[in-house]
Design goal:
Elements (H helix, E strand, L loop, with lengths): L2 H8 L5 E5 L5 E6 L3 E6 L4 E7 L27 E2 L24 E7 L5 E8 L2 H6 L4 E9 L3 E9 L5 E3 L1 E3 L2 E3 L7 E3 L5 E4 L7 E4 L10 E5 L5 E6 L4 E8 L3 E6 L1 H6 L12 E8 L5 E3 L4 E12 L1
Antiparallel strand pairs: 1-2, 2-3, 3-4, 5-11, 6-7, 7-8, 8-9, 9-22, 10-21, 11-20, 12-20, 13-17, 14-15, 14-16, 16-19, 17-18, 18-22, 19-20
Bound molecules: 6-O-phosphono-beta-D-glucopyranose (BG6).
Length: about 300
């Protein structure tokens, strides 16, 4: 569908329009008085969210990000689905699954009575998805842009055998200086240390998570509320999750960032990822005709 037809069907006067964005990709722009947001149907990905009171965006997007078919956009909230991390079967399929490199369809938009804006995007299985992952499904992402940002990733099993998957909302939060931020809420949780040399060590977190080297950890049995304290941007980011008991905290630090072609060398200072996931011990099984909804709500508070 061309941009004009998409706007005729989904545009909301003075609030939501469909535009051609970076790399010629179709984007959804929202300005509703409560916040502004940018959503990419390529990847089903929120790229920007800025509440009216906020001086800075909630999210980091790399200047070097790829905005092209078949590539993941580095920044915002990439959707990792139907597997989180490397191909679990080692068949060379894309890391973090295919949802983040897939063209999603715009299914619905609406302006809500509380002033927030609703966007629903989806992917249904077809011969291309089944070539990568042989299951029948309907995947929806529901995004609510208001004073807070809510993202719900809903998997419907449309087949007649159970779906087993891992997944995640891989949020890249913008920070003033990664070396100064603290992630709260994980003290006492055990984590798998993916950045340690050799075998994955299991360690218990004491106090807030801070960054002074590469951090790549899968936390288990995490609470539903986490926060990121950022003394440089003078704000606190609140993350409230639904149906997620695992969380990934990631910052590549100097060398890993340098090795990533879609990041500037200094970018590791400008974001931290605190990811709402189901991974490691938390593999999801969805019976036929059932749904599973993974959710995150993000807010910015001044500190
Ligand atoms: O694919 P992206 O966006 O570069 O993110 C990669 C990172 O994603 C994190 O979730 C993983 O824990 C890291 O191991 C990985 O390097």
């Amino acid at each position: 569908m061309d941009i004009e037809a998409l706007n005729a069907q989904f545009g909301i006067e003075n609030v939501l329009r469909v535009v051609t964005g970076r790399g010629g990709l179709t984007m959804i722009e929202i300005t509703n008085g409560l916040a502004t947001a940018l959503i990419s149907p390529h990847g089903g990905q929120v790229l920007s969210f800025r509440p009216a009171h906020a001086a800075e965006d909630l999210f980091f997007v790399s200047e070097r990000a790829y905005f092209e078919a078949g590539q993941a956009i580095k920044g915002g909230v990439p959707v990792c689905w139907p597997w989180f991390g490397p191909d679990p079967q080692g068949q060379g399929r894309p890391a973090h699954g295919f949802a983040r490199i897939w063209p999603w369809t715009i299914l619905a938009t609406a302006q809500e009575p509380d002033g927030s804006t609703f966007v629903q995007l989806g992917i249904a299985d077809d011969e291309h998805t089944r070539a990568l992952w042989p299951y029948y499904f309907n995947l929806l992402i529901e995004i609510r842009v208001g004073t807070t940002l809510a993202i719900d990733l809903i998997t419907r099993n449309a087949g007649d055998r159970p779906l087993r998957l891992t997944q995640g909302l891989h949020a890249y939060f913008k920070v003033g200086d990664a070396g100064e931020v603290a992630v709260h809420g994980l003290s006492g949780c055990r984590y798998l240390d993916k950045a340690a040399d050799g075998a994955d060590a299991v360690i218990e977190q004491t106090g807030p998570v801070r960054f002074d080297r590469e951090v790549n950890r899968i936390y288990e049995a995490v609470p539903a509320e986490l926060s990121i304290e950022d003394p440089v941007l003078k704000r606190r980011i609140g993350i409230e999750t639904k149906q997620s008991r695992t969380a990934v905290v990631w910052n590549p630090w100097v060398e890993t960032a340098r090795a990533m072609p879609d990041l500037d060398d200094a970018d590791y200072r400008h974001f931290v990822c605190v990811e709402t996931v189901n991974t490691a011990s938390e593999v999801i099984e969805i019976p036929p005709a059932q749904d599973y909804s993974l959710g995150a709500r993000y807010r910015i508070e001044s500190a």
